[in-house]
Amino acid sequence: MCRLLRLLLIRFPGRTFVFSGDSGYGTHEVARFCSRHRGRLTLVSKLHPDANLYDPPAPRRGGVGRPAVRGPRVPKPRQAVAAAAAFTAVEVGWYGGGTRRVGVLDGRGHWYKAGYGLVPVRWVFVPPSTLGGWVAAAADAGERLADEPLALIRRVYVVERALPALGSSPDAEAVRHARRQADAVPVLADLRGWLDRHHAPALPKSPLGQAVAYARANWSALARYTDRGFLTIDNNRSERALRQVAVGRNNWGWRAARPAAGPRWSCTRSSAPAGSSGPTRSPTSGTPSRPCSSWASNRRTPTSPPGSPTRGSPAGRHPPRPSPADATTAEPSQPASKPADQPFNSGT
Questions:
Q1: Between the N and C ends of the chain, which has fewer C-beta atoms within 10 Å?
Q2: pLDDT (tens digit per residue) in 168-216
Q3: Which residues contact 73 (CB under 8 A, 6 or more apart)?
Q4: Nearest CA to 10 among 40, 31, 36?
Q5: Could you tell me the residue ranges of all domains in the chain?
């Protein structure tokens, strides 16, 4: 990273830079480099709360021995925050172009690392409690803030449950559209106003900020159901139907790999009652298939006569070997072994 920063300084000699990074760039090496070029380069990063901070050494006035490389120790950031009685209130820029008043605590010191000397730093600590309830979405303040839009959404669903079902009467679709325009549209207008008011203050990466951004980006799709009486307020039924495929996708992957798995999968997925003896119909091909009971009963039943070679067995590739009983009754065509008194002839 120091090489890249050096290239920027060389390529743009008349400009100043502020390098902002996470804790991975808040190292002593990068801090030393930025300190050597402090006139044009500033580092903004996270500092370890237990960083070793010291005062600069006092000027040396004669004497013998090695000069001091650091002065007295100053409190670490963690120690200074624990001992602080109050924080300074400042107004800072915030997300969305606004400002916010927060409490901060800052300090100065020289970051020391053995063998590398001192680096002057200034650290700033912002307590999470001063950032408001929108920062910590899991906090009670954030949960209370979301009560208002949740109540508006519940009111919309109350209106939806009071509508007549489609097909219940010839004018059911017209009635649904009229009631939605009269009862649901004003509630949706209040919900849209709440989203617009809290879009800028909410942190973009927080759960509340992500929910507000999602609702505002898809608002036309969320409110489209009020324009037609036959539309539903959500797609929960479609999500439930797709969930069966998503959950069982890994369990059904063997269907394409094994030819015999297709009929069995069709059998297990059929709607035939348990214990039925009639053939079921495959949901994919529509051809009749055997019931599940026949698959279970014939799973280990041999399909060939006993003693016949099966596919893949050694008996199907080689002639059967005689049993010990057959070997005693069969007449050998040649002596089983050569007499001991005859000489062994290897080549003639």
A1: C
A2: 888 889 999 999 999 999 999 999 998 888 888 777 777 778 888 888 9
A3: 52, 53, 54, 55
A4: 40
A5: 16-46, 49-56+69-131, 140-238
